[in-house]
Amino acid sequence: MHRLVEYITILGVEIPIWILLMSLNLCFIFALWMLYIVLMEQHFVKDNTGATSIEYALIAGFLSILIIAGVTSIGIT
Description:
Elements: E1 7-10, E2 13-16, H1 17-46, H2 49-74
Antiparallel strand pairs: 1-2
C-alpha cells in the first residue's frame, strides 16, 4: 500500500514526518528566541544609561504625586 505521507515509528506510535519536522523547527525557533533573550539581558546588564532615565521617571512621578496632593489639599478657594 502506498502512503501519501511518510511516517516514522517512535515507541510503537506512527508519527507523520511533517509533524516531527515541524516540532523540530519550533524547538529551533524557541532556542533562537531564548538565545536572543539571554543576549539582550546581557546587553541591558552592561548598559547603565537606562538606569538614569528610570531614576528621572521616578523623580518626576514622585513630584507629580506631591503636586497633586498639594493642590487637592489646598482646594479651590
